[in-house]
């Protein structure tokens, strides 16, 4: 699997995946399960015409499909090729008021997901074999051999070739939903994330593997981010994973996310200190001459370089490199100190619906160093005494407020995630989960 993904990356040297997913055989079985009632509804609409008027004694009777029931619907994986869709449908056909015969429509179709010239994923049917057989009653079986078809009248009534041409619409994830995978999703009002497929998926015994490259937009413009120095390969899951889907995100993905937030201004924070210029003048004597009246002390912190995320076993760390302008006044801000603030904080990752919830769980370390001063030299110990409590409390709180809506995971419309387990490993995060069809409203 790793070799196949390396070949995929080599073919797209200018574009490098930083996340991806594997739809497992369990996931395919679930998609077949939820598609079965949908397929029955579509076939009923296509095959069951409105009741015809009563035929006159002189006119020939017309075959009428009076019942459609999907009895078997399965999706199986064909490694290196795609998927096989197998459908069996029981049809009740009435040719006269008292004559109803049962037929079995069987469809065997080979499907795969391809990438079209617009670089959207689409479901393609590569082969489809329909058969229509009359189901013989016990008495008929005793009298005669089973017949392959009921004759030209029924064949004309059931256009099996048309069903084959449109067989993919019997699944609950048509191409419109596949395209929704690459839709831009909001993170903040000005920042969006988009997951772009790099190529058509690959098919292995573990499942259907797709590699994605994340792009971030700020105010509608894609922002340039450094390409990962090491192309990300989907980690190979256990062959018998019970989860429907396994999502994986590289360390580079999280660093890019925080870099995008930085470029959008979302990491710029304003902190109101509990101190005032009068209380500060007790510790810093030059404050009194600079600010004769008592004013609130405010900290405006902005990133001085891009954030960095480090993933270790069971641990995610974000490193923020800020410069805080410390000044007085709310309406007319006057800075008197510039302090470099380096924050190392542990991240907590969870999933709600189709969103990854990222929050700063605990600050592990904060380093303050004086960058510039209008009130003379200040010892590092005094800086920490005066400003560390505010920074330790307010910086995580404001970042958590920015990220409170979460970051949308790659997903297709109408499906959400359940039974989610987030595990952090060295260099990547693994999210095994189950698919769940959203209940229709209205």
From TrEMBL:
The UniProt record lists the keyword Signal: yes
Signal peptide: 1-16
Highest taxon listed in the record's lineage: Eukaryota
UniProt entry keywords in alphabetical sequence: Signal
Region annotation (Disordered) ranges: 42-64, 133-152
GO molecular-function terms, A-Z: lipid binding
Domain Lipid-binding serum glycoprotein C-terminal: 239-433
UniProt cross-references to Pfam families, sorted A to Z: LBP_BPI_CETP_C
Entry-linked PANTHER family: BPI FOLD-CONTAINING FAMILY B MEMBER 4, BPI FOLD-CONTAINING FAMILY B MEMBER 4-RELATED
Protein name (record): TENP protein
Upper lineage: Eukaryota, Metazoa, Chordata, Craniata, Vertebrata
């Amino acid at each position: 699997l790793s070799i196949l993904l390396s070949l995929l990356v080599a073919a797209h040297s200018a574009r490098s995946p930083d996340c991806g997913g594997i739809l497992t055989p369990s996931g395919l079985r679930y998609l077949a399960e939820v598609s079965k009632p949908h397929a029955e509804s579509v076939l009923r609409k296509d095959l069951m015409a409105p009741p015809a008027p009563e035929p006159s004694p002189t006119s020939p009777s017309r075959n009428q499909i009076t019942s459609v029931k999907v009895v078997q619907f399965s999706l199986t994986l064909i490694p290196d090729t795609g998927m096989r869709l197998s459908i069996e449908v029981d049809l009740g056909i009435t040719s006269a008021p008292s004559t109803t015969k049962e037929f079995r429509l069987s469809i065997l179709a080979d499907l795969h997901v391809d990438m079209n010239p617009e670089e959207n994923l689409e479901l393609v049917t590569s082969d489809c074999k329909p058969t229509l057989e009359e189901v013989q009653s016990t008495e008929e079986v005793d009298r005669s051999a089973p017949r392959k078809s009921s004759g030209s009248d029924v064949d004309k009534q059931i256009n099996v070739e048309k069903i084959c041409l449109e067989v993919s619409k019997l699944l609950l994830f048509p191409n419109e939903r596949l395209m929704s995978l690459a839709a831009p999703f909001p993170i903040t009002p000005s920042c969006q994330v988009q997951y772009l497929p790099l190529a058509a998926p690959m098919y292995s015994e573990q499942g259907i593997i797709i590699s994605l490259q994340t792009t971030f937009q700020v105010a509608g413009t894609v922002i340039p981010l450094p390409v990962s120095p090491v192309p990300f390969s989907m980690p190979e899951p256990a062959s018998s994973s019970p989860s429907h889907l396994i999502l994986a995100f590289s360390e580079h993905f999280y660093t890019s996310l925080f870099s995008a937030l930085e470029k959008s201004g979302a990491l710029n924070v304003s902190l109101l200190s509990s101190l005032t210029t009068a209380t500060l003048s007790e510790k810093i004597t030059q404050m009194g001459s600079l600010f004769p009246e008592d004013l609130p002390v405010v900290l405006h912190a902005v990133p001085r370089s891009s954030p960095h995320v480090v993933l270790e076993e069971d641990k995610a760390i974000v490193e923020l490199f800020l410069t805080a302008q410390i000044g007085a006044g709310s309406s007319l801000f006057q800075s008197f100190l510039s302090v470099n603030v380096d924050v190392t904080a542990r991240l907590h990752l969870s999933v709600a619906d189709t969103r990854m919830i990222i929050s700063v769980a605990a600050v592990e370390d904060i380093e303050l160093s004086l960058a510039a001063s209008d009130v003379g030299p200040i010892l590092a110990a005094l800086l920490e005494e005066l400003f560390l409590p505010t920074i330790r409390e307010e910086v995580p709180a404001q970042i958590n407020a920015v990220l409170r809506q979460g970051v949308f995971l790659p997903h297709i419309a109408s499906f959400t995630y359940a039974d989610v387990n987030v595990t952090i490993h060295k260099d990547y995060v693994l999210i095994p989960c189950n698919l769940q069809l959203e209940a229709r409203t209205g």
